[in-house]
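Researcher: We plan to redesign the surface later, but first we want a full-length starting point. Tokens attached.
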């Protein structure tokens, strides 16, 4: 009896109706990208592991889908590698390539590789699938589409303001009520500094980024397991619990971070961004979230995350400022900032709220 066909966990088939609805999402986002003057590019699904590894933090590296080398790779592996239990050495022998984890790192590679062809600042958008070896669950897939927009070659905060406007415009067009959460990596660095753990920023951000999922007590446990001192943890918790309006929280942060030059710089950047977006006006609610970290190691300034208000699901858009991502590819000092829309989660939100227009169909409107 023939085996029943199936697809890998965390992936999905899309029939004509689903595909038409997904194209509606892509076209809506693409329309906004074009309106703001972004140009489209595409990069390969496969990247060299040397391009991908070390850019997403320890946990991100674990979620990379690695591709087995073709040919007689097994013959080239020394017998000691099988007994040394050294997975890193073994991986480099059996796999040299991987599926892209996001679109930002490949974009940084693209900028460096094609730097002589680009006019800076360069505004690009990219709508392509990415892959992560994550545990599949509601709203989390192993293969999913990202819709990215990035500006590289300028460190002006006007770009962050523009990206917030774009986020607001996209979800306004889709009819989804959202809250746009903001934070700044410099604020997080300042917090690490004032609690006496400036060298543990990565451990702190990885843990507190899970606070909405696992709660403050479990975050404290994870920080303890990561080796953060009891004193540092006790100083951190009250900072994460500051409350009030965004402006009130900014004032509290100014007091808390008074002895951190880096932290105060992050507060000033947030103040500029919040003030400008308030003056321009947005349909979406804008919030300041001190616990927002977005675990990726390459962020250096503004951090953005978007949550749907009417559906319980993870973030449906996010991004931030990265000042030296191109530096790892031999082009230091080039600042960039970008956002990414998660098309698959947006699809789930639109489906749950029944917001797809009746005109979105795969069938012809008129037949002769």
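Model: Full-length starting sequence:
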């Amino acid at each position: 009896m023939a085996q029943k066909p199936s697809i890998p966990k965390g992936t999905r088939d899309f029939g004509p109706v689903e595909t038409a609805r997904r194209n509606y999402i892509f076209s809506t986002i693409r329309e906004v990208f074009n309106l703001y003057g972004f140009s489209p590019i595409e990069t390969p699904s496969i990247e060299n592991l040397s391009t991908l590894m070390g850019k997403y933090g320890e946990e991100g590296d674990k979620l990379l889908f690695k591709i087995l080398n073709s040919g007689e790779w097994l013959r080239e592996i020394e017998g000691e590698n099988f007994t040394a239990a050294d997975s890193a050495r073994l991986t480099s022998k059996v796999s040299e390539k991987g599926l892209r984890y996001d679109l930002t790192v490949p974009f940084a590679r693209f900028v460096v590789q094609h730097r002589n062809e680009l006019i800076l600042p360069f505004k690009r958008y990219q709508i392509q699938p990415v892959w992560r070896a994550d545990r599949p669950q509601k709203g989390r897939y192993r293969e999913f589409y990202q819709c990215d927009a990035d500006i590289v070659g300028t460190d002006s905060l006007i770009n962050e303001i523009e990206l917030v406007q774009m986020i607001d415009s996209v979800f306004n067009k889709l009819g989804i009520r959202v809250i746009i959460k903001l934070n700044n990596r410099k604020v997080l660095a300042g917090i690490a500094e004032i609690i006496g753990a400036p060298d543990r920023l990565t451990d702190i951000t990885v843990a507190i980024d899970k606070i909405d999922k696992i709660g403050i007590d479990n975050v404290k446990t994870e920080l303890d397991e990561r080796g953060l001192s009891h004193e540092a943890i006790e100083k951190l918790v009250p900072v994460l619990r500051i409350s009030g309006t965004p402006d009130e929280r900014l004032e509290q942060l100014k007091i808390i971070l008074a002895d951190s030059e880096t932290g105060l710089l992050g507060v000033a950047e947030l103040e500029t961004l919040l003030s400008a977006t308030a003056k321009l006006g947005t349909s979406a609610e804008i919030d300041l979230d001190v616990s927002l970290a977005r675990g990726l190691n390459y962020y250096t300034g503004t951090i953005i995350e978007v949550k749907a208000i009417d559906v319980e699901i993870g973030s449906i858009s996010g991004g931030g400022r990265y000042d030296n991502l191109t530096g790892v590819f031999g082009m230091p000092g080039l600042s960039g900032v970008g956002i990414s829309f998660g098309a698959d989660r947006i699809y789930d939100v639109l489906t749950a709220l029944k917001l797809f227009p009746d005109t979105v169909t795969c069938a012809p409107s008129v037949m002769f």
